[in-house]
Request: fold
Amino acid sequence: MSFTEFKTVDQITVTENGIVLYREATRILKDGEQIAQTYHRTSLTPAQDLTGQPANVVAICNAAWTEAVIAAYQAQMKANQLPQ
Reply:
């Protein structure tokens, strides 16, 4: 009897304002057959540090986060701040 656990990014989505959402599935196999699965979701905002993120997610972020997208996101965040 052999158990194997592995993680894989099974969904990546880019929202209209440049936020990248991804889901990582952890699958447990017993003798090659899946017996359990859990999910973990993560969101990344434009220009966020990508250190430690999966390579395929980094590639999507680098493609989606143009200078214009980053500037628009930062402007939106500034506009949404409450006056002090």
Summary: The mean pLDDT is 95.
